[in-house]
Design a protein that fits this description.
- By secondary structure, the chain is α/β, with parallel strands linked by helices.
- Helix content is 50%, strand content 14%.
- Helix 5 links the parallel strand 4 and strand 5.
- The longest helix is centred in the middle third of the chain and has 15 residues.
- The two termini are 14 Å apart.
C-alpha cells in the first residue's frame, strides 16, 4: 500500500518527532510512504478562526497535491467525515469516549478505536 503523508505545519514546527514516528511506524508495517515536498499548510488554522475565504486556496492546493492518493495519513485530526475517514483514532481513551458520544449522538458513519486496537489488529493480519 502506498500513502501520501501530510505533516501539518504545527506538527512539522513544534512536534517533528511525531512526523518521524509516523513514517517509522508506517514503514515498519510495510506501507510505502510518499511525502509530497510541495505540501503547505492546509488552511485549517484559518478555517478554524472563521477565515474560510482565506483558507480556501490552501485547501484547494491540498486537494491538488493529495487528490490522487488512495490514502492520506496525517498525524493530526482537519473534518474526518468529509475526508472519508471510517475510523478516528487516538491514544487517549477519554478523548475517544467523548468523540464516540458525539459521533453516536449525531449518527455519524464513523468509529473510534484506540491506536493499540488498530496496531493489534494489524499484527493479526
Amino acid at each position: 500500500m502506498k500513502v501520501g503523508l501530510f505533516i501539518p505545519c504545527y506538527v512539522d514546527q513544534c512536534y517533528p518527532n511525531v512526523g518521524l514516528a509516523t513514517v517509522d511506524l508506517l514503514e515498519r508495517h510495510g506501507v510505502e510512504v510518499d511525502y509530497p515536498e510541495d505540501q503547505t499548510c492546509c488552511g485549517q488554522p484559518m478555517a478554524n478562526s472563521g477565515l474560510g475565504d482565506a483558507a480556501r486556496p490552501l485547501a484547494e492546493r491540498f486537494l491538488r497535491i493529495f487528490g490522487d492518493y488512495d490514502h492520506v495519513v496525517c498525524p493530526s485530526g482537519a473534518a474526518h467525515e468529509r475526508a472519508g475517514a471510517e475510523i478516528v483514532t487516538a491514544a487517549d481513551m477519554s478523548c475517544l469516549m467523548h468523540l464516540d458520544g458525539l459521533i453516536r449522538r449525531d449518527r455519524r458513519p464513523l468509529r473510534v478505536m484506540h491506536v493499540a486496537e488498530i496496531l493489534a489488529a494489524a499484527a493479526e493480519s
